[in-house]
Amino acid sequence: MPAAGCGIDWAEAHHDVAIVDQHGAVIVAERINNDAAGLARLLEILTEHDPIEGALAVAIETSKGLLVAGLRAAGRRVFAINPLAVSRYRDRYRSSRGKSDAFDAMVLANIMRTDRDAHRPLPTDSVGAQALQVLTRAQQDVIWDKITLTNRIRSLLKTFFPAAIAAFERGGRHRLDSAPCRVILAAACTPQAARALSTGQLAALLRRAGRQRGIDAEALLLRELLRSEQIRQPENVEQAMGMQLRGLVRQLDAVCQVLAELEEQIDLAFGAHPDAKVVASFPGLGTALGARLLAEIGDDRTRFADARGLKAFAGAAPVTRASGKSSFVHARRAKNDRIAATGYVWALAAIRHDPDWEARYRARRAAGDRHAAALRNLFNLMLGKLHHCLATGQVYDASTAFPPRMPTEDQSTAA
Fold first, then answer.
1. pLDDT of 411 over the 50 cut
2. How far apart are CA 78 and CA 83, in angstroms?
């Protein structure tokens, strides 16, 4: 009897493979190693039990890793099943709530046998789109690391060096993660060392950080702020905290350097992609947001049947919960968090730079929407237009996206 589904329960050292027939009976149950020989054996098993080349779908609880990359390179359709969904399917086959690696592989195989159409296979994105996704996700992770380190530095400065916060966060002109702040704190990581810096030394540090204008005035102001009266920790404690601060600043330097390198590579990768021209034509989408959006959407045109699928994937489409006479509409929680975060910033940038989008935002606020709800509504509308432009290869045109309204008398005549 031909095979109906294949499931793989992956682990760090090995993987359990199960193949079931059309009645759910296990016809293959094998454990393979997590290496090249294991992948070769898996492909051999799939070829042996696949009557039609590429018809046997594979279910696995991850979308990353060398095993998934090897399966996709071999032309296999891979379905990344959410582990939470797998736990629900597991109860169908075993009410005792017991589990094992081989059992989970069988459950995944049966998901392909019974509910394949309810799940979405991994998209067949181009290599360029896959590389762009790796870069943009790495950039987002590094940005989160940068925020975490900056907050740790601010928290530490509050305990023994509050003058530094007053000096580098005044009026929004500087931030603790800025180059001048990092250079000066690395050179003087304690209040005592900062008070010893002269105006000339501060000016030299500002030049080293890349500042080109107003150096003397800035150095004089920093000298006054760093020498202001403040409560001090005991000398030994202060020196120990200074060492801790120096270590955090070095980590922040490394993170900022990696971030700059990633941004440079993202610029090149995004500019080389054929869809970059379409994405960048939308208001509010520069290289950073456009690259992140394109990376998460991908360039597989069959991934989303229509714009509604893309909106649900991005979390822009609302969810309705109805039972009896009650009905409640709320924001979607099951979504791609990275594209949802990008959409919020995109909508905010669009209403600041485009009058049509600003008018839409004002209308939603006037109708009673809160700020976040109005931005989510705009993101929903933007995604529909972006989906159309990507599908047709057209760049964004405001006159087409927002055609002029007909006069009232013309509307009444047409009615």
1. no
2. 15
